[in-house]
Backbone:
């Protein structure tokens, strides 16, 4: 019989479970070879420095909400629920369809989820796991029964396609999860979130908000595009994800030896390797898909979760660790018993 970790013994009386996952990536593949024609880079540099071989780019007219709704449909199908059953839609994104209404309202419209309340969540690449924690709170305090969490981003709209430091890294996509109460010990057993605003300049889109409204001049200087201090972001990513992983494991009363799978943010293979090394987790336990999709921001961990789930990687009772970081800086982690 499976041993219940000490810190959880007697505590689990309302479990919040992921009852369905889904994901969507656009059809258009942008390869490293194509990027060689755009900026001074090479397939060899991108592959060896990041692990990324190709990424997906949304079609013209395909907005963040369209990708989010497609991922959500798949999650709802797997969960066996109708759109009317959704009480709350949270969309984590930094590339909303419109500054308002919220992208979650557009998703509600596409899905016909007429009974849901909707809001967006801005935590950059950490947004999906921030959403999972918010959903978990709402369900465990009985406010809502069924919550749809989507991580979706169309970073191709804010990438500077002349900046080789960033344009090779990102792609578009969406991932979704439906959460609901399910009796038994299954479900989200711990969550952890953190932020440090003193690092806000490391990863930023300077223009387009109230601090610097768009002008012809700042658009001409590409200030409406994403800017990143890569090396420092790399360093902080490893530090914050390792600490976040430990925090979620401690709350769950588990160690890395108990884990069957780790799903980290998909930003750079070298970050994932450094994280696995710090956690002393073999890479064979780590789910990686950045070679095919690059960094899809809030969607990355959600797409990877869906991919691992649908590939049959999880068995009932498995412990899975999700861990992310992103602009803000923000970071988050969660341990789930499948
Ligand atoms: O979701 C969170 C988002 N961000 C991240 O997680 C990114 C974290 N950072 C990284 O992944 C890495 O820092 C990068 C992949 C962005 C850069 O890798 P690096 O090993 O840290 O390279 P670097 O920035 O130290 O640059 C090394 C050299 C520089 O040339 P010089 O100054 O040494 O002559 C860069 O100009 O590599 C050059 N370089 C490139 N060369 C070819 C930077 N980008 C490219 C490129 N192709 N695409």
Residues:
């Amino acid at each position: 019989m499976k041993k219940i970790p000490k810190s959880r013994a007697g505590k689990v009386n309302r479990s919040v479970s992921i009852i369905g996952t889904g994901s969507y990536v656009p059809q258009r593949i942008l390869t490293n070879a194509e990027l060689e024609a755009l900026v001074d880079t090479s397939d060899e540099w991108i592959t060896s420095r990041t692990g990324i071989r190709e990424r997906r780019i949304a079609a013209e007219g395909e907005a963040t909400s369209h990708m989010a709704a497609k991922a959500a449909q798949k999650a709802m199908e797997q969960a066996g629920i109708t759109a009317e059953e959704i009480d709350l839609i949270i969309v984590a994104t930094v590339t909303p369809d419109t500054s308002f209404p919220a992208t979650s309202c557009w998703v509600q419209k596409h899905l016909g989820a007429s009974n849901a309340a909707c809001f967006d969540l801005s935590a950059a690449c950490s947004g999906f796991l921030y959403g999972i924690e918010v959903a978990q709170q709402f369900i465990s305090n009985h406010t809502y029964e069924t919550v749809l969490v989507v991580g979706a981003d169309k970073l191709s709209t804010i990438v500077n396609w002349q900046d080789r430091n960033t344009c090779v890294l990102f792609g578009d996509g969406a991932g979704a999860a439906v959460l609901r109460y399910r009796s038994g010990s299954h479900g989200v057993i711990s969550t952890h979130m953190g932020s440090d605003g003193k690092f806000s300049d490391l990863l930023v889109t300077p223009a387009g908000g109230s601090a610097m409204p768009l002008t012809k001049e700042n658009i001409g200087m590409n200030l409406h595009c994403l800017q990143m201090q890569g090396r420092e972001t790399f360093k902080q990513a490893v530090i914050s994800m390792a600490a976040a992983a430990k925090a979620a494991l401690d709350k769950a009363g588990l160690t890395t030896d108990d884990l069957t799978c780790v799903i980290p943010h998909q930003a750079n293979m070298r970050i994932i390797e450094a994280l696995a090394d710090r956690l002393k987790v073999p890479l064979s336990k780590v789910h990686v898909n950045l070679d095919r999709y690059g960094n899809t921001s809030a969607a990355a961990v959600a797409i990877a979760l869906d991919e691992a789930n649908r590939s049959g990687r999880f068995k009932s009772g498995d412990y899975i660790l999700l861990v992310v970081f992103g602009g803000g800086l923000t970071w988050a982690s969660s341990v789930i018993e499948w």
Q: What stands out?
A: The domain at 188-337 is CATH 3.40.47.10 (Peroxisomal Thiolase; Chain A, domain 1). The radius of gyration is 19 Å.
